[in-house]
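Regression test case RT-17, inverse folding.

Input:
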């Protein structure tokens, strides 16, 4: 069953000049991909004018709300009690965004209501994917 939870969020893009620019985003979680969370940005705030989605582990978001976390393309850390920073690395540069921590915690709690922690059994999805890849052999 596909259950998707979406939550609008307001982020502040931190520019190279240390200015904060408001950026709309949507936090998204789907039971079909229970280990991941998605942050969707509309085309009007992206460099190439196309919608952009960042995908990373739900556990990374959980960990990053309380302590610095992440390697590679996504890093998350608390910034005081009220803000959390999400840092996205791409071939075109780095985007540094601040989100309200209570909004991220609320989103995370809703994701756990969709699929509880420890219940992300993906074995069936892996089997289905392998079967499709190898033609049911």
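Golden output:
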């Amino acid at each position: 069953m596909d259950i998707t939870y979406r939550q609008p969020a307001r982020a502040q893009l931190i520019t190279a000049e240390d200015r904060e620019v408001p950026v709309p985003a949507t936090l998204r979680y789907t039971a079909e991909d229970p280990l991941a969370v998605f942050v969707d940005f509309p085309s009007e705030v992206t460099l190439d004018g196309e919608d952009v989605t960042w995908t990373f582990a739900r556990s990374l978001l959980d960990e990053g709300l309380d302590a610095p976390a992440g390697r590679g393309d996504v890093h998350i850390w608390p910034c005081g009690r009220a803000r959390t920073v999400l840092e996205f690395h791409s071939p075109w540069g780095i985007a540094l965004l601040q989100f309200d921590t209570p909004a991220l915690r609320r989103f995370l709690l809703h994701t756990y209501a969709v699929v509880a922690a420890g219940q992300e059994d993906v074995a069936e999805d892996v089997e289905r994917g392998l079967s499709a890849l190898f033609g049911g052999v």
